[in-house]
Amino acid sequence: MTKALIHRLRERSAQALGAFSAGKTVLLAGAALTLAGCSANPVYTTTGIVLSNYAEGEATPYVLEMKDPEMACALGLSLDPLVYSFSRVTSPPDTTGSLLMLLAANCSEYNAMEAEIAYLRADHEGNVNEARDAREQVKRLNAEIAHRRLLAFERAMAAYKFDPGAEPVECPFLFDDQDELTFLMGLVTGMQAIVNDANSGAMAGIPRNIAPQAERAVRCVENDKWGGVPNAVRALVWLLLPDTRPPMSPDPWQVLEHSRELGFDRGFRVASALEVVAAETFGRPDVLEEAIRAAADAESDMEVSSAYRLLDSVAHRVLLHSSDKHWAANYGYRTPSNSFGSLSPVSSNRSTQTMDLDDLL
Q1: What DSSP string describes 161-212?
Q2: pTM for this one?
Q3: What is the pLDDT of residues 12-49, one digit of tens each?
């Protein structure tokens, strides 16, 4: 009798301990999950929101005031993966993300510019293998630029919940100048992506319907306020796709020329850069020469916009590269420092500064 009682007590004790152990395991697992949730989502989400707001409210205006395109593009390359990674835990920062990817694409473009000059110089010297290698590098870099610019365009459209293919076009709500600029630069970048894809041999596969979409969407932004850039985009599309040109509209080349002058008045030469791109794309050396000359002449008279120095600096880089290409192809070297604005060597009676090598010793 006593042995049976002892055995029964042992069984109940074991059951009680088992139940307690199981309950403890459940409680510990629940606590672990709770702590894991607290350490992952709220902290990351808050950090993402703070970082995105800082990038949009402080970093973007600061970068637009810079006049160093290389440093600006480096910022885009470094910050974009960080800022946009928070789209995993909060709403995608498309507004800031569009500008960051635009800057990252500029880094690729600067590399492509150097490769293109190398190709033209090698071709001028008759170095076939070097020219062929540089030309292939140009095509690959243009594909990279096109991919990045397409992403910048898509982010800009998503930032303002704008459907560029909708009929009829419903203009987005653009709260301030920075919103207008972000939207406008997104459209310009989309157009550039098409040109880059063409220069890559269609390696990137950029949709061509971006062009007519940009032509319609850019009407949502005031032309005079933004230095003729909106109408320059429209004129470029009319040249690419003549069917998009409205009846009774002015000649696209006249629109580009007028847009160039508006850009000088506003303090940034983005419209001039678009005019040069159009002249190169459609084989108008006369327009190319006039656009570069006018842009160079404007440097002495134009007051660069303090809020948008970067726009003019990037545009100047495009204009100078166009001049460099002409010089490299025809003379084997880049534009001399005292010859920007001219596509031929200066006359012999123009004074040229020389350096006395003895001064270096």
Answers
A1: T--TT-SS--PPP--SHHHHHHHHHHHHHHHHHHHHHHHTTSSS---TTHHH
A2: 0.83
A3: 555 554 544 444 444 444 444 344 444 457 788 888 88
